[in-house]
Specification:
By secondary structure, the chain is an alpha+beta fold. The protein has five helices and four strands; from the N terminus they run αααβαββαβ. The chain has a four-stranded antiparallel sheet with strand order 2-3-1-4. The radius of gyration is 20 Å and the shape is elongated.
């Protein structure tokens, strides 16, 4: 999809604040409300906009521990990968999961209430999964930057 400068400005604005009304977006961008509405509909239909969410502060919700987990599978068969990926999709404390190159198969970002809650997940869920061979954990000390805004 080729984006115009106006499209990029619109996408930047909704990344900053998805709660803006069509009227407010149109005013900020010097566009008509109907144009803004039509472009947003087109972006959603094409999959460019996959969802609109509210970002919550994990620490204020009692999920102050952030862990980066490097996981390896026992084998790399399609069945093993699909089983692991289905398992991960069902784990609410796994915020993100990436299949990666290098010495590990996957990198996960996990949120937990405390170290004990993470240990419980690690020992009784992740390492107990029959397709998982190993996992290495790196605990975040503090978060220096967090954004979901893509550079447009």
């Amino acid at each position: 999809m080729t984006l115009s400068d106006a499209d990029r400005r619109l996408l930047r604005e909704i990344q900053r604040d998805a709660t803006l009304s069509l009227k407010d977006l149109a005013e900020r961008l010097a566009m008509s409300q109907s144009t803004v509405w039509r472009r947003l509909q087109e972006f959603e239909a094409s999959g460019l906009i996959s969802s609109r969410v509210t970002l919550l502060d994990p620490s204020r919700l009692g999920l102050g521990v952030c862990v980066f987990v490097h996981a390896n599978l026992r084998d790399h068969s399609t069945e093993s990968r699909e089983a692991f990926e289905r398992f991960i999709a069902d784990q609410p404390n796994v915020l993100e999961c990436f299949s990666v190159t290098g010495p590990h198969d996957y990198v996960l970002i996990i949120r937990a209430a405390d170290v004990a809650a993470y240990e419980d997940f690690l020992m009784h869920r992740l390492l107990a999964h029959p397709k998982v061979a190993s996992a290495q954990s790196d605990f975040a000390l503090r978060q220096l930057k967090y954004t979901t805004m893509l550079p447009l």
